[in-house]
Specification:
With 696 residues, the protein is mainly β. It is 12% helix and 40% strand. The radius of gyration is 27 Å and the shape is globular. Residues 1-23 form the signal peptide. Keywords: Signal.
């Protein structure tokens, strides 16, 4: 049997098969590949073929002999004829291990860490093939090969093939038992000799480039758009790219830090010629927290590969489809809103004496992302929030004038600040029209006054004044980066205070911080807070936030962005005020997303997020949601609580293929529950979440 060709093609659920390392096939157990997937094994190779689209199949030929490249051949068929895309390459990884500060601030939720300034080490992850396990679920096939090791880490190589696309993911799934560990990784495909004839990529200004692969004697790092590098052999090509958001740990700046590489002997750790993805160890040279790697967690150091046979330009366009060309797809009945930007245009340009451009670059960048409404967080330690009054009013007027000037019929630039006064921690303020207010109130100064130029002017001296201002002007406030950064300990510390209990205090904001490659979803810190606030009985909302500084065309903006899709019938105009924006937030009429997953509708017994409904006597609830996606979905989760516990109903969505839309419904017993909400996550750990429906 060990020397005979075995060809197994069975439709249904792929269970389990083992192949010994010298390719002596044994131990088949209920081997049932996913629909259309075939596996062949002989003394030299294991070959897996999967449906890759209309009239197309992709093929992966694996060599299980140690010392030989794992990928003997990666192929794609066209017109029924297979053509090699790349041959004799090994997936390889560099793991960089540093130390997390778990003491000084808030444990694993820390952002104010500077890992690269402490001792750290980079290692090639060694691979000794021991066996192979082929399993599957839904429309995907998972090939697991144990034998990965680096100092303090060990685990498996995991290759996931996605039916319906010439797409696969390669992951080093590794764990450590060492506490306080932070990590980064670089990865790619490496060969003993150059495996491609050309390297292609989009430069940061979106021009396709072709590099001479014979020139660099050492590896070269590149700043690219779409985080993608393509190795081409004539018209056949392989695009290598990371998960669009998960791979980018949080930083203050979205600088493009040359996230791809190609060439010889990368970092003097990967002998041979390769191409792949990389991280800059120093980050933006501010606070650089890297990824968390808690003991025992399975960290997925992974990258995607997409195959093509119609040239590099077409292949790149297919990669771009997974992120809607790095923009937020228009959705009828919704407008996109992004919040929390510290680009400081007023202080650094308008009031600094520099020429004021007709159309600043940050406006062009945000418009290009498909964002309809931008809520700024200006004057972040750069201005005069406490006065002198004349200076503060001058700064506010400049902000209001520029927001008015730069808004148009489909782009609303809105003034906002991160005041960080009065309440505790960091928080954002948002008013439905221009409001003049000064963050100090001396004895004898009235709360409200009027002058000829500005109209009403408010002086704020404490948290009671601040709440009164929010009430007077129908404004909203919420905790920025809750439970981390300058909001460590908040909003927990003020959850019983009048301002927090007020309907003027919206809640908090979500961002994928900290980063942990073992998690199947992003931003657990804030989802935990959301569930806590729901169980506290506070009917709060969680919008998404960017919390970024400079915004430039060459930046890697999309990876660090997220948006809120607000239910708005039409685009508000600056001159009329933007009360509908605040209404949608306050009423919970929105969902938030990284962009790849959209939740077009979500109801519980016919009622939408933000609403309160009466539970039927039997507790029976029908949850309906309509979602669309790019990467294949992994799961949806209906999350509920009874005031004490949190309950999770996971819906397995591994039966989905890439690029779909579907309506789901689930009948659940919600007896005793007080709230319910929804999250949806895909195979690249992109996701979307709704606001809460309240039950009584």
């Amino acid at each position: 049997m060990a020397h005979q060709l075995k060809h197994l093609v069975v439709c249904g659920l792929l269970s389990l098969a083992f192949f010994k390392v010298q390719a002596q096939v044994s131990g088949y157990k209920n081997f049932k590949p996913a629909a259309g997937v075939s596996v062949m094994a002989n003394t030299a190779n294991v070959t897996v073929t999967w449906p890759a689209g209309v009239n197309s199949k992709a093929k992966l030929v694996l060599n299980l002999k140690n010392g030989q490249p794992l990928f003997t051949s990666v192929q794609l068929s066209k017109g029924g004829i297979y053509k090699p895309v790349i041959e004799n390459v090994d997936p390889q990884f560099i793991l960089t291990e540093g130390q997390r500060d778990l003491i000084s601030q808030n444990g694993w939720n820390i952002f104010f860490d500077k890992v690269p300034l402490k001792p750290h080490h980079s290692y090639k992850v060694n691979f000794h093939k021991k066996s192979i396990n082929v399993s599957g679920k839904g429309t995907r096939t998972v090939i697991t090969i144990p034998g990965l090791e680096a100092p303090n880490f060990k685990g498996d190589l995991e290759i996931t093939l996605y039916n319906g696309q010439p797409l696969f993911n390669v992951a080093a799934v590794v764990s450590t038992q060492i506490d306080s560990t932070a990590i980064l990784y670089d990865a790619g495909l490496v060969a003993k000799t150059n495996p491609v004839k050309a390297v292609n990529y989009s430069d940061v200004y979106e021009h396709l480039q072709t590099n001479d692969v014979n020139k660099p004697d050492t590896a070269k790092s590149l700043a690219v758009k779409y985080r993608t590098i393509i190795g081409a052999n004539d018209n056949a090509g392989i695009a290598i790219f990371p998960a669009p958001h998960q791979y980018f740990y949080p930083l203050d700046e979205a600088f493009n830090l040359k996230f791809v590489w190609y060439g010889n002997n990368y970092r003097n750790l990967l002998p041979g010629y390769g191409l792949g993805i990389r991280q800059e160890l120093q980050g933006d040279k501010r606070f650089v927290p890297w990824f968390n790697a808690p003991p025992g967690t399975k960290q997925r150091l992974n990258f995607f590969c997409l195959l093509g046979n119609d040239g590099a330009d077409n292949l790149l366009n297919k990669v771009k489809q997974f992120t809607h060309n790095d923009s937020y797809k228009p959705l009828p009945g919704y407008k996109t809103m992004a919040s929390h930007f510290h680009n400081e245009f007023i202080m650094s340009v308008v009031l600094s004496g520099k020429p004021v451009p007709d159309s600043p670059s940050f406006v062009k960048v945000l418009k290009r992302q498909g964002i309809n409404i931008v809520h700024l967080a200006e004057f972040h330690y750069t201005a005069h929030p406490k006065g002198p009054d004349e200076q503060r009013l001058k700064e506010l007027k400049a902000l209001f004038d520029q927001c008015n000037r730069l808004s148009d019929s489909n782009f609303l630039l809105l003034p906002g600040e991160e005041p960080n006064e009065f309440f505790g921690g960091h928080w954002l303020a948002f008013f439905p029209k221009p409001v003049y207010w000064i963050m100090s109130r001396k004895a004898g100064t009235p709360f409200e006054s009027t002058d000829a130029e500005h109209g009403k002017v408010y002086h704020i001296g404490d948290k009671a004044d601040m709440l009164n201002l929010l009430k007077a002007e129908n404004g909203l406030a919420w905790t920025a980066h809750a439970r981390t950064k300058g909001s460590t300990g908040f909003p927990d510390a003020y959850k019983k205070e009048d301002f927090c209990l007020s309907d003027r205090f919206l809640g908090a904001a979500w961002k994928a911080l900290p980063a942990d490659l073992s998690e199947p979803r992003l931003g657990k810190r804030v989802f935990d807070l959301m569930d806590d606030m729901n169980n506290w009985g506070l009917k709060k909302k969680i919008l998404s936030e960017a919390d970024l500084f400079s915004i430039e065309p060459e930046n890697e903006m999309y990876a660090h962005l997220n948006v809120n899709y607000l239910k708005l019938a039409k685009q508000p105009q600056y001159t009329n005020g933007w009360q509908p924006v605040l209404d949608a937030l306050e009423q919970g009429k929105f969902f938030s997303t990284t962009g790849e997953v959209l939740i077009e509708d979500f109801t519980v017994n016919g009622h939408s997020s933000g609403e309160t409904i009466a539970l039927p006597a039997d507790g029976k609830c029908t949850v309906n949601f309509k979602t669309s996606w790019t990467f294949p979905l992994n799961f949806a989760e209906i999350i509920s609580g009874d005031g004490k516990k949190v309950y999770r109903e996971r819906i397995d969505l591994t039966s989905t293929q890439a690029f779909g839309t579907k309506t789901f419904n689930k009948v659940l017993n919600m007896k005793g529950r007080k709230w319910v909400r929804l999250e949806v996550w895909d195979a690249a750990v992109d996701g979307a979440y709704t606001q809460t429906v309240w039950l009584k």
